[in-house]
Write a structure and sequence with these properties.
Structural class of chain A: mainly alpha
CATH class of one domain in chain A: Mainly Alpha
Largest sheet of chain B: 7 strands, mixed
Strand content of chain A: 5-15%
CATH architecture of one domain in chain A: Orthogonal Bundle
Number of helices of chain A: 21
Number of helices of chain B: 11
Largest sheet of chain A: 2 strands, antiparallel
Distance between the termini of chain B: 34 Å
Mean pLDDT of chain A: 88
Number of strands of chain B: 18
Low-confidence stretches of chain A: 1-23
CATH topology of one domain in chain A: Cytochrome Bc1 Complex, Chain D, domain 2
Shape of chain B: globular
Oligomer: heterodimer
Number of strands of chain A: 8
Radius of gyration of chain B: 23 Å
Strand content of chain B: 15-25%
Shape of chain A: globular
Helix content of chain A: 40-55%
Structural class of chain B: alpha/beta
Mean pLDDT of chain B: 97
Chain lengths: 467, 538
C-alpha cells in the first residue's frame, strides 16, 4: 500500500495538497477531473476513440486488426450513444475487464489487458473526467462487424480466461519509487506491451517475449527491451525521454505510424518526471536478443551519394522504368538530400544512423514509404508524404517501392536486408496476417468449433467459481 | 471497345480546369469520362528528366511531346505553333499536353482578379465586360484556394480583391532576397507584397511543406506546389474514368444543336466515339479552339459554338518585359521558391483608360547558371572564375512583368494547312501588341531603372522585347451578347446548351495577374451548374 501511494504522489502532488488543505469539495472534484484528464492522456484514449476529423472521444476510429476493422466506441458522457449511463462500476468493468454495460465482451483492441493493472483511484479519476471533463457527443459510433467466427463476442470470455491476467499492479519494493512509477505507466496506462510485445496465434501477448517487438498492421513496434543490440540498450535515459517528448532522436530514430500518434496525443503531454520514470523502467526491461541482429539498428550506414554517376546517363525520356538509385534521387533526395544526410536541423532525418533502415526488420521502412509520417510534436508539424496508392505526390508500384527500399538499405542501412515486391504488396494489405486470421479461410468450421469450446469452457468455469 | 463509352459528363482535357470539374462531379456521384490527348507522366520521371537536362531554363524539356499529341517545344523548335504577325515571337507560348496539364510547371501564383478587371468597358471605356462580376466569383475563388491549397499574406495586406475568409494557409517566410526587396521598395514609394501562391507553407492535403528546391518550374519534386495531377488522381479515386492518349478531333452535334459525342484518335490514328449528356471542353485556350474549328459541319461552317465568329479571336497573354542588373549588395536569390513577391502599384486606376495595368515580380530563381555562363564568357579561369561566379550568383537581380492587353478580334488563332502526325491541323496564330500595352511598358522601363538605382545597380540590361507568359486567354471569350461572344457567364456555349468551356480562353480581360486561380474558380462554378443540371447537387 505504501508503495502505491508513493507512486501516486510522484505524479500527483496536487491532489494530495488539495485533500490536505481547506479546499472545498468542488475543488477536489475539479482536481479529480484534471487528474483524470492527465491519466486519459497517458492512456492515450483519444488516439483510438476519435475518428479522423471527428469529435474527441466520439469513437468511430477504425483499428485495422488482422481479423477485420474494429471501430472504437463513443466514450463521451452522452446518454445517447456514449457512456453517459455508465455507473462507475460499469466503467471499471469495461476499462479493466473488457466488459460493456450490456454484458457483451470487448475485443482486446481495447487494451484492458493492460488497464486491468490500473489503480482503483486512477479508475475513479478517469471516470470523473469522462463524466465531467469531456463534452458529450450524441450518436453511437459505427458498429464493429467482424466476420464469423470472430463476430461471436462470447468467445472473448474464453480468451480472457486464457490470457487476461487480473492480478493488480504489484510494485517491486526492491526498486526505486521512480522505477515503480515507470512500471505502472508502461505496464498499465501507456499499455506499451499491446504493441511492443509480439502476439501468439490467438492474438494474445507472448509473456516470454515481453517488449521484444510486435507487428501492428504494416508497421513494426520494435524491441524496446534493454538489449544493447536488438533493443534500447544503446540509448541513454535522456535519449529515451527526448524520443518520447519530441518523437525523434537525431542519429537514432524517429516516430512514425502508431508511435507518432502515441507521441502526439499522449507521451509529449506527460510530465518530465513521468517520462524519466518511463525511461528508467524501459531501460531495465529484461533484455531479449534477436539472434539475427549483429549490431544496433542506429549504427548502420554512412552518408554517400550516387548522384554524380546518374546525371546524363539516362537523358530525358518519357518511359517509366528506372533503378533504385534514380528513384531515390527523384523521390527521396529532395528532402533527405542526395547523400541521405538529411537537413542540417534534421527535420528531414539522416537515412544512415537511422533504425528504420538499420533494424533487422524492413516493415517500418516499407510502411513509411507507403504511408509517410505525420507527427505534431515538439512544436513542429513533421510530415513526409506517403507513396502508396492514395499518394497525392507520386503513387509508386510495389516494385518501385521495393527498388527504392533496397537502394536505401544498401546505401544507408543494413545491407543484408532485402525487400521484395511481395513484401510491399503484403504491407499495403496491412501486413502479413497472423495464423488466426488465416484460419477462417482454411478451416472455418474448425475455428467455429474452437470458439464454441472456448465459450463453453468459460461458461463452465464461471459457474464453478460462483458455485 | 471504348467506342461504347458513355458518361453523364465528358471532360476533354485533364489540366487543372478539367480535373477540378471531373473531381467535383465524380464526387457528387455523376459518371465522368476524361479524355486526355497526351500521356501520363510520373512525377519522379519528370524530376529525373529535369536533373538530366543541360538547359535548366527550358521548362518544356522534361515533358517530351508525344508524337500523336505534340505541344510547343523550342529547344529545338518543333514549329508546332505557327506564329505570324508583327509580334509573332511574343506568342511563342508553352503548354503541356500530358495528364495533369500545364500546372506541372508554373510559378504557382494564385492571384484573384480585381473587381474592375471584370468591367473594363463600363469602368474604363476600353476592352470588354465579362458579363459576370467579381462578387459572382468570390465564393468560387475561395473554394479554389481551398482545393489548390493557397498560402497568402494573412496579415491584412490588401491585394485589391476583397475576401471573406483568410487564405487556407499563411504565407511562407520571405527569402532573404525577397525580404530585402520588400524593405527597400516599400520604403521608397513602391508597393511590394508577398503574393498568394498554391504552395504549401505547412503540410496540407497530404502534401509536404515547400522545402525550397527552387525549381517550381519545371517541376516541384516533392508536390508542395499544386499541380492539376492532384485533381486527376482525386477524380479517378472518386470514380471518374480517364482515357489517356485520346486525341479529340471532333465534337458531334445533333439537329437540336446539342453535342452528342466526342470523337478521338488513338496514337495509331484509329477513331473512337464516346457519348455523354454534357461536354466540358477543357483542353486549354488554343487546343479547345482547334477542336471547335475542326468540328465544322454544313450548318456550322465556321466551327461549333461560332455563330459570333469569335472562336479563336481576342487572343491575349501578359506581354512581359524584364530587367537584369548587379546589385551593390549580396541578395542570394535562389533560396525558397522561384517567386514570392510582386510589385502591385499599377494593377488598377484611372490610367487604365490610357494604358495597360501591370504587375512586376522579383525573380528568386537561383542565378548560378547565368552567373557561370557570364563568367566563362569573360575568359576567366581558376580562382578568378570561382570568385566571379560567386559574386554574380549573389548579386544578380532579375525582375519581370505582366502587362495587360486588350482583346482584339484580329489577334487570333486559325487552323493551319500544316498538319501534325495524326493529320490534324496545327494552330496558326496572328498576334500584334497594341499601343495600350506599349505605353505601359515604357512606364515599366522607368520603374526598372528606379529600382536599379535603389540597389546601386551595375551592368543594367533592359529586356524591352515583349516575352510570352503563357497565359492564353480570350479565345472562346465570355460575354452576355451571343452576337459577339462565345460563352455566357456560366461558361456555357451560347450556341450549344450542353457544351461548357473550362479554360482561360473564356476570360474577357487579361488583367495583370496569372489566370490559373480564375480558371479554377470558373471550373468549380461550371461543376456546380452541372451538379444542378444532373440533379446531383447536395
Amino acid at each position: 500500500m505504501k508503495a502505491h501511494s508513493l507512486i501516486r504522489s510522484a505524479g500527483f502532488v496536487g491532489l494530495a495538497l488539495a485533500l490536505h488543505g481547506t479546499a472545498a469539495r468542488a475543488d477536489a472534484d475539479t482536481d479529480l477531473v484534471k487528474r483524470g484528464e492527465y491519466l486519459a492522456r497517458a492512456a492515450d484514449c483519444v488516439a483510438c476513440h476519435t475518428a479522423s476529423g471527428g469529435q474527441p472521444y466520439a469513437g468511430g476510429y477504425g483499428i485495422e486488426s488482422p481479423l477485420g476493422t474494429i471501430y472504437s466506441t463513443n466514450i463521451t458522457p452522452s446518454k445517447n450513444g456514449g457512456i453517459g449511463n455508465y455507473s462507475e462500476a460499469q466503467f471499471d468493468a469495461a476499462l479493466r475487464h473488457g466488459i460493456r454495460a450490456d454484458g457483451a465482451h470487448l475485443y482486446p483492441a481495447m487494451p484492458y489487458t493492460s488497464y486491468v493493472k490500473l489503480a482503483p483511484d486512477d479508475v475513479k479519476a478517469l471516470y470523473q473526467y469522462f463524466m465531467h471533463g469531456v463534452a458529450p457527443v450524441d450518436g453511437a459510433a459505427k458498429a464493429t462487424e467482424l466476420p464469423f467466427p470472430f463476430s461471436v463476442r462470447l468467445a472473448m470470455a474464453g480468451w480472457n480466461m486464457l490470457f487476461l491476467d487480473k492480478a493488480p499492479f504489484q510494485p517491486d519494493p526492491a526498486k526505486s519509487v521512480e522505477w515503480n512509477r515507470g512500471a505502472y505507466l508502461v505496464e498499465a496506462l501507456e499499455h506499451c506491451s499491446s504493441c511492443h510485445t509480439p502476439r501468439n496465434a490467438l492474438m494474445a501477448e507472448q509473456s516470454g517475449q515481453a517488449y521484444a517487438g510486435g507487428a501492428l498492421g504494416a508497421w513494426f513496434a520494435p524491441n524496446i527491451t534493454a538489449d544493447p543490440v536488438s533493443g534500447l540498450g544503446g540509448w541513454s535515459e535522456s535519449e529515451v525521454v527526448e524520443y518520447l517528448k519530441t518523437g525523434r532522436v537525431p542519429g537514432k530514430a524517429q516516430a512514425a505510424g502508431p508511435m507518432a500518434e502515441a507521441v502526439e496525443h499522449s507521451l509529449q503531454h506527460l510530465s518530465d518526471a513521468d517520462l524519466k520514470a518511463i525511461a528508467v523502467y524501459v531501460k531495465d526491461l529484461p533484455a531479449i536478443r534477436d539472434v539475427h541482429d549483429q549490431q544496433p539498428g542506429h549504427v548502420f550506414g554512412s552518408s554517400n551519394s550516387d548522384e554524380a554517376t546518374l546525371r546524363g546517363v539516362a537523358g530525358v525520356s518519357a518511359s517509366n522504368s528506372a533503378g533504385g538509385a534514380e528513384l531515390f534521387s527523384a523521390v527521396c533526395a529532395s528532402c533527405h538530400q542526395p547523400a541521405g544526410s538529411g537537413s542540417k536541423d534534421q527535420y528531414y532525418p539522416s537515412l544512415s544512423h537511422n533504425t528504420t533502415l538499420g533494424r533487422g526488420d524492413t516493415r517500418n521502412l516499407i510502411a513509411v514509404i507507403l504511408h509517410g509520417v505525420a507527427r505534431k510534436a515538439d512544436g513542429k508539424d513533421v510530415f513526409m508524404p506517403g507513396f502508396g496508392a492514395d499518394s497525392l505526390v507520386n503513387p509508386l508500384s510495389d516494385q518501385q517501392i521495393a527498388d527504392v527500399a533496397n537502394y536505401t538499405l544498401k546505401q544507408y542501412g543494413n545491407p543484408a536486408l532485402k525487400v521484395s515486391a511481395h513484401d510491399v504488396a503484403a504491407a499495403r494489405e496491412g501486413g502479413e496476417p497472423p495464423l488466426l486470421a488465416k484460419l477462417p479461410r482454411l478451416m472455418p468450421w474448425l475455428i467455429g468449433g474452437l470458439v464454441v469450446i472456448l465459450g463453453l469452457v468459460a461458461w463452465l468455469f464461471g459457474r464453478r467459481r460462483k458455485g | 471497345m471504348s467506342d461504347n463509352l458513355s458518361a453523364d459528363v465528358v471532360v476533354i482535357g485533364s489540366g487543372v480546369a478539367g480535373a477540378l470539374v471531373a473531381h467535383q462531379l465524380a464526387s457528387a456521384g455523376a459518371s465522368v469520362l476524361m479524355l486526355e490527348a497526351g500521356p501520363r507522366l510520373e512525377r519522379w520521371r519528370i524530376v529525373e528528366n529535369f536533373r538530366n537536362q543541360a538547359d535548366k531554363d527550358d521548362f518544356q524539356r522534361p515533358y517530351p511531346a508525344a508524337k500523336h499529341a505534340p505541344h510547343p517545344e523550342y529547344a529545338p523548335d518543333n514549329d508546332y505553333l505557327i506564329l505570324k504577325g508583327p509580334d509573332a515571337k511574343s506568342y511563342a507560348s508553352q503548354y503541356l499536353r500530358v495528364v495533369g496539364g500545364t500546372t506541372w510547371h508554373w510559378a504557382a501564383s494564385a492571384w484573384r482578379f480585381l473587381p474592375n478587371d471584370f468591367t473594363m468597358k463600363s469602368t474604363y471605356g476600353v476592352g470588354r465586360d465579362w458579363g459576370i462580376s467579381y462578387d459572382d466569383l468570390e465564393p468560387y475563388y475561395y473554394r479554389a484556394e481551398v482545393e489548390l491549397g493557397v498560402s497568402g499574406p494573412n496579415d491584412g495586406t490588401d491585394l485589391g480583391s476583397p475576401r471573406h475568409q483568410p487564405y487556407p494557409m499563411d504565407h511562407l517566410l520571405l527569402s532573404y532576397n525577397d525580404q530585402r526587396f520588400y524593405d527597400v521598395l516599400n520604403a521608397n514609394g513602391f508597393k511590394l507584397v508577398s503574393e498568394p501562391v498554391a504552395r504549401n507553407s505547412r503540410p496540407y492535403d497530404q502534401r509536404p511543406t515547400c522545402c525550397g528546391n527552387n525549381n517550381c518550374m519545371p517541376i516541384c519534386p516533392i508536390g508542395a506546389m499544386y499541380s492539376g495531377i492532384l485533381h486527376v488522381d482525386k477524380a479517378e479515386r472518386a470514380g471518374a474514368k480517364l482515357l489517356t492518349n485520346a486525341v479529340v478531333y471532333r465534337l458531334e452535334v445533333d439537329a437540336q444543336d446539342r453535342i452528342v459525342a466526342a470523337h478521338y484518335k488513338d496514337p495509331d490514328g484509329n477513331s473512337h466515339r464516346v457519348t455523354g449528356k454534357y461536354f466540358v471542353l477543357a483542353a486549354n485556350a488554343l487546343e479547345s479552339v482547334k477542336i471547335l474549328l475542326m468540328s465544322a459541319t454544313d450548318k456550322w461552317k465556321n466551327g461549333l459554338a461560332n455563330s459570333s465568329d469569335q472562336v479563336g479571336r481576342n487572343l491575349m497573354d501578359h506581354p512581359g518585359t524584364g530587367v537584369t542588373f548587379l546589385a551593390d549588395e549580396p541578395l542570394w536569390p535562389g533560396r525558397g521558391p522561384m517567386e514570392m513577391t510582386s510589385i502591385v502599384d499599377h494593377r488598377d486606376g484611372e490610367f487604365r483608360r490610357e494604358w495597360a495595368s501591370k504587375k512586376l515580380h522579383l525573380n528568386n530563381q537561383v542565378q548560378t547558371r547565368h552567373a557561370t555562363l557570364k563568367a566563362l564568357s569573360m575568359g576567366l579561369t581558376g580562382k578568378a572564375l570561382d570568385d566571379e561566379i560567386r559574386y554574380r550568383s549573389a548579386h544578380t537581380v532579375n525582375i519581370n512583368s505582366f502587362h495587360d492587353i486588350l482583346p482584339e478580334p484580329n489577334n487570333r488563332m486559325r487552323l493551319s494547312d500544316q498538319k501534325d502526325a495524326l493529320g490534324l491541323p496545327r494552330p496558326e496564330i496572328t498576334y500584334a501588341i497594341g499601343e495600350y500595352t506599349k505605353k505601359s511598358a515604357v512606364h515599366t522601363h522607368e520603374a526598372y531603372a528606379k529600382i536599379g538605382k535603389l540597389f546601386g545597380c551595375r551592368e543594367i540590361e533592359f529586356n524591352d522585347t515583349f516575352a510570352p507568359n503563357n497565359h492564353l486567354m480570350g479565345s472562346v471569350i465570355m460575354g452576355s451578347d451571343p452576337r459577339d461572344s462565345v460563352v455566357d457567364g456560366h461558361c456555357r456555349a451560347h450556341d450549344h446548351a450542353n457544351l461548357y468551356m473550362a479554360t482561360s480562353g473564356v476570360m474577357a480581360s487579361a488583367g495583370s495577374v496569372n489566370c490559373t486561380l480564375t480558371i479554377a474558380a470558373l471550373s468549380l462554378r461550371i461543376a456546380d451548374t452541372l451538379k444542378h443540371a444532373l440533379g446531383k447537387a447536395s
